Amino acid sequence: MDCTTTKFSLCKFAQDLKFDTYSPQKSSTSRKVPCSSNLCDEQSACRSASSSCPYSIQYLSDNTSSTGVLVEDVLYLVTEYGRQPKIVTAPITFGCGRTQTGSFLGTAAPNGLLGLGMDTISVPSLLASQGVAAANSFSMCFAQDGHGRINFGDTGSSDQQETPLNMYKQNPYYNISITGATVGSKSIHTKFNAIVDSGTSFTALSDPMYTQITSSFNSQVQDKPSQLDSSLPFEFCYSISPKASTNPPNISFTAEGGSVFPVNDPIITITDSVSNPMAYCLAVMKSEGVNLIGENFMSGLKVVFDRERKVLGWKNFDCYSVGNSRSNLPVNPNPSGVPPKPALGPNSYTPEATKGASPNGTQVNVLQPSASFSPKLRCNRNVLVAAALLFLVIL
After folding, report:
1. In this model, does residue 328 exceed pLDDT 90?
2. Is 275 in contact with 283 (CB distance < 8 Å)?
3. CA torsion 239→245→246→252, rounded to 10°?
């Protein structure tokens, strides 16, 4: 959470939307976390027990970091049970950034990052420990139009697909094992581990998985390759013909246990200055040493992060539906109340994962687009998916 006085704008060619920053001074419920708190991990950097607890975090993107102090404030949630939804308040602890570097100086995460990890200080952990959420589990629904939902306490349903989470004490991220992939009519026999990271806009794969999947996709595309600006972080792009329909190959992963993880929207469309489609790209970036399943590969799914059973679940889902809920919570689209999806610009797809996220601690390196890249990308990806969520709800 940026606590400076700067305001940011995002996706200006679609809508000049401003983001105000959080100010502890303007919040009557805000308080700084002291170094004496058991939530303070950097007590060695404290001057005294009563000093504000500092934090410092490094992200996978080159030279990207955030430092500041821990702050406690109130999070307002809406229930999704009972006949009438109710407002519930819950105290949470988060980092109030004072100094940002790298991608955070551009368009990355203009309204902050919502901590959803397994750490005890994360939002789901705090809500579960306080009894606000019914279970130490949550779900995120990624609509294909940019809207979405996050439900704290959601343990999923019996009809979902699921796979075990790989638990690493040093790196407690949402890591799963992939045992195979299907691209169009081709089956790929490959095994790799991947971090499921809702804070990363685009999926990033390392070799040999990257080459196996992208080459298979490229060999089955009927459209002509498009030579776009070399600064674009995607290797495989194709021209869109006004007289032909675009029908790229489908992609899916097979996870440990045999469940199939469908990729409903693996491409990103590029438009000209007047928003006419001119090309599309396979929205997969090449990385070194780390595999990240980003938000674009979760589009059209409800993904359940069950930290009690230690499984990841998913199924195709309409994010405007409340499923089996008895709530009267309105779920109709409200474009005026939801930020537009950002264009891809310099550093706009910053991975949320921190350094050391893989079991071997390898940093991911991805291509960085230059500021001179001219074609505009359709606003169809979130820098931070939490920025476009319609509701924060609890079960």
Report:
1. no
2. no
3. -170
Whether 238 contacts 225, CB under 8 Å: yes
> Order of strands across the sheet with 277-282?
237-239, 277-282, 267-271, 376-377
The C-alpha angle 335, 1, 322, rounded to 5 degrees, equals 40
Please name each of the domains of the chain with its CATH number: 8-394 (2.40.70.10)
- Residue 384 scores a pLDDT above 70: no
User: pTM to 2 decimals?
Assistant: 0.78
Kindly report which listed range (43-47, 136-140, 355-359, 390-394) carries the lowest average pLDDT score.
355-359
- Show Cβ contacts of residue 239 under 8 Å, excluding neighbours closer than 6 positions: 223, 224, 225, 226, 278, 279
- The answer to whether 178 and 192 are in contact (CB under 8 A) is yes
**d(C-alpha 68, C-alpha 122), whole Å:** 16
CB 200 within 8 A of CB 343: no
